[in-house]
## 1
Amino acid sequence: MKLISIVVPMYNEEEMAPIFLEEVSKVMKGLTDYRFEIVAVNDGSKDKTLEVLKKSLDTYPWLVIVNLSRNFGHESALHAGLIEAKGDAVIPMDADLQDPPSLIPELVKKWEEGYDVVNAKRKSRKEDTFYKRKTAGMFYRFINKLSPKVKIPENVANFRLINRKALDQVLALSEKNRVFRVEVPYVGFKVGEVYFSRPKRDKGQSKYNTKAMTSLAIASTVSLTTRPLDWCIGWTMLTGIVTMLSIISEIVIAILLATNILTFSWIYMVVWLGINITLLIASVIMVQLTIMSQYLAKDVLEARNRPDVIVDEVIRKE
Ligand code: UDP
Ligand code: MG
């Protein structure tokens, strides 16, 4: 029988933990053709999450608790859980039931149809505030423009099914700046989708404020692409052109002044000269920055040491 692992990071979820375990267990028991486990990662909770989880071990023998030494954050906690998960398919979920367990059978069905990754995509962001909806939309447009080859699916969080083959590739990525929702599209494979509407958090507090969302957006961009470093090239060219035009204009006007064709206070020319020298210095710095950014971009890729290519299968005629 195939094993399905549910991985759930928990930070101060003493209220949600029992409800989550009960709801997910109910759904999983309905999937009679599969064995399942719930890997709960206690991400250094300050409340009684760990105690609650430990007490649940008797009721839920399929529960595995990964207790982290302190709070590492959602992405790292998820990673710890993914390492521990033994499943043929693994489903990361949030503890607050905003990723509805009732969708699990659909994810599994799609997986059995032959998809390696099944994204749980939100039908709409109606439930979100106007602000979150707008910023999320802007973020997806921005990031997907930056990266033509690896697309980040819009309105898909960590909630998705990923099979062993794809998960092993994700876990083989040796980077430390981990962003699951970038790594999964990076490794590729056959991707399917199911749709759901996201309910509001039932109990407890959301840990994602604007600051956390911003740092996730930055971490995702950095993880996905080094392309922003290329912007330096454009800015350098712009600075260079402005500098050249300004210097040439000043020379022309200086000649006109010297030949008395134009009358113009020399004091302005001196100020202009100062501006031109500043522009020239800025241009030299920009050129050097461009060179550095290009080395940096290549070095980031080397340091990250991701596989440059991932083969799904090799097919030959028998
Ligand atoms: N979480 C975590 N470590 C943290 C912050 C959050 O493990 O430092 C967990 C949290 O317990 C929940 C999931 O990550 O299971 C998503 O957090 P939350 O529901 O606060 O995020 P939101 O739904 O508001 O984006
Ligand atoms: Mg939530």
## 2
Amino acid sequence: MIKIGVLISGSGSNLQSIIEAVNNGSIVAEIALVISNNEEAYGLTRAENYGILTKVIKHGDFGQCQEFDQELLRVLKENRVDLVVLAGFMRVLGAAFLAAFPDRVINIHPAILPSFPGTHGQEQAFDYGVKLAGCTVHFVDEKVDHGPIIIQAAVPVLSNDSEDCLGARILRCEHKIFPRALALYCAGNLRIEDRKVKISGVDESALEDQFLISC
Ligand code: GAR
């Protein structure tokens, strides 16, 4: 069975949706451990509530990003992790880390990429005044928020929205598409071809009618 290592920095609501999907059998995998770079991340408590191994590795304890990455790698390898999942992990992983997990690092971003990469994607979309916002699950490559896209979902931006209100609507969508993307990965249903992610085992014929989620 695939072993997942989840990296977090904060609340861990996406982590929670992943744990629930593993527990109900929609994701066929085991969560080997959860690592946070922030010792106060509430996601650590969520993981502990389910008896999942947790580790804190603080980036501030390392002089250079590469050393932080190496320590992450060491712990992930020690726990025989196959797939690294970034669930609100607010650090950028370097080339050496990614080379150790080729096409095996998956991230969620709170915007419809390639629009609004970087931090605070929801706020960027709100400030820009788009009418559709959303989220993206993608493989991680060496450029920030750039790798092959697995699933995207769109939500409307309403006239009386606040940033918080829009952010919460996007987050609810994240909780749907992230477990879905991981389930597809773990079932062996994703293939990257020329940077496009081909999905098998899903009936895509109805997508034009219910276009809000891309698969
Ligand atoms: C989520 O909105 C996620 O998309 C975002 O951080 C939040 C984490 O929430 N990630 C990024 O912005 C990564 N660039 P959570 O801790 O409740 O899952």
